[in-house]
Amino acid sequence: MSLLKISNGTLYDPAHGINGEVRDLWIQDGKVIQAPPTDSLKPDRIIDATGLVVMPGGVDMHCHIAGSKVNAARKMRPEEKRTSAPLKKHGNFRSGTVGSVPSTFATGYLYAGLGYTAAFDAAIPPLSARHVHEELQDTPIIDKGFYVMLGNNQYVMQQLALGEEERVRSYIGWVIGAAKAYGVKIVNPGGVEVWKQSGGTVHSLDDTVPHFNVSPRQILQGISRTVDSLGLPHAVHVHCNNLGMPGNWTTTLETMRALEGHRGHLTHIQFHSYGGDADDQSTFCSKVPELVDYVNSHSNLTVDVGQVMFGQTTSMTGDGPLGYFLHKVLGAKWYSADVEMEAGCGVSPIVYKNKSLVHALQWAIGLEWYLLAADPWRIAMSTDHPNGGAFLAYPQIIALLMDRNLRDEMLQKLPPAVKNFCTLSEITRQYSLYEIAIITRAAPARILGLRQKGHLGPGADGDVTLYQPDIDVQRMFELPRYLIRDGEVVVDLGELRSSSIGNVLHVSPDFDAGCLPHVEDWFNDHYSLRFSNYPIEEEFLGSAVQVACTTP
């Protein structure tokens, strides 16, 4: 039995309404416990947190850290590896490379170095899940999970077109359990399948996907109903059609309306909030106020931002046609892949330039989302790592949210026309530490349905970050004084002290197994592997935690 006492820290625990109160925190065997009623219980270690800010461990609910497209990006960016300082092997800690797409070991170490204890990969084809689990086992310290992409799955589209919703429900329940996934992702519903067929895409929710005779709206609504009926802890995770295109805000608004009556999480919402004409970039502008008004008034919806930060990074997406579009626009190298029956992807380097009006507006639009959202419990911090920038940029984003003067200084370095096409310069709001704790910890944990994370109450995982207050907010969040995971000190004054493995978080919803013979017959007729070889065995996962689904 291990017992840790964090003494006299200034706690920020929004899930329990604790806003900067000086308290003690006790962690026993990796879980937060009530303070012992007497002095009879002696801790094995006491951390004097006097003057330190104490928050739950950070939770990144949308990133790309494993899978085939991540590995393709690692291979196609040798120029980044040459210019980024490597992580060298020392003691029990492994070596790694950094850049915008760090290697597996480096990913775990770098997240821990920022005070994060959980991260979720947002776009995994079920067929790739076995290898993804192997990568996640090589990503130390943090807990992790992933969402499987089903918005262009051929079996799902076929059954939706036939009106066979019970088959859809059973198939999705089976495939999540088979892949040992945490949630369901929809990427450009129907559009990736059109790309695979003809090199095109869809442009509205009511276009028809050839051969399958189904629309993006049917896919979106059918899967969102299924996710709710299966009782998954996280809502359907939606990457809307027309990502990155001027004028796409109308598609985004229609997507929000199509989710009426069901939970929906709209991811990297910044990339879906553009006004203007797709054929005239001079009309490019923000439509955040219109979209945020809708989200503010519809409690079934949550978002993460996908903040763009200036500099070099790598675009990687399960949206194949988008990957090709970026390649054409940027003239950079490009990688594309087709995953049989299920999905596709595209990878290309990108540099966001502060002298570019379009890039400057993307930066401003992300900040507008944070600052105009009325309820911080329904918005989560993300850069869509690495698409808008690496997760290492989170401290810089926090500083921008907490300091209007810093935002104004940045605006002065951007093209003057930025102020004509967005409202950022007019926004006076500044985030508090309490609100930062919400959008980086409490809100993503709640949105994901992780009851044991994002808070410091009894029963919570013993994941705690301690920061030294600093007038330089970015520096404060770049270098936690301590990171504690599962009750163990992992980071102390910027030095790694432990390299624990971390758990894979997954779900296993109930479904009607009577539908599986139909799935198996279809599967064996269409896939290049047998149905019986598809599911991943529990013992393959290593350290894993199955998160409960709710009873529909």
Q: Biggest β-sheet, characterized?
A: 9 strands, mixed
Assembly classification: single chain
Mean pLDDT: 95
Counting DSSP H or I runs of 4 or more residues, the number of helices is 17
Give the C-alpha Rg. 23 Å
Number of strands: 24
Helix content: 25-40%
What proportion of the residues form beta strands (DSSP E)?
Answer: 15-25%
Q: Shape, please?
A: globular
State the separation between the terminal residues, measured CA to CA: 37 Å
Task: Enumerate the spans where pLDDT stays under 50 for 5 or more consecutive residues.
Answer: none
**Overall SS class:** alpha/beta
Fold and architecture overview:
This protein is of the alpha/beta class and 552 residues long. The chain is 32% helix and 23% strand. The chain has 17 helices and 24 strands. Strands 1, 2, 3, 4, 5, 19, 20, 21 and 22 form a nine-stranded mixed sheet that branches. Strands 6-7-8-9-10-11-14-18 form an eight-stranded parallel sheet, sandwiched between helices. It has a three-stranded antiparallel sheet with strand order 15-17-16, sandwiched between helices. Helix 17 links the parallel strand 23 and strand 24 (544-546). Helix 5 runs antiparallel to helix 6 (165-179), helix 6 (165-179) crosses helix 8 and helix 13 packs across helix 14. The longest helix has 16 residues, at 357-372. The protein is globular.
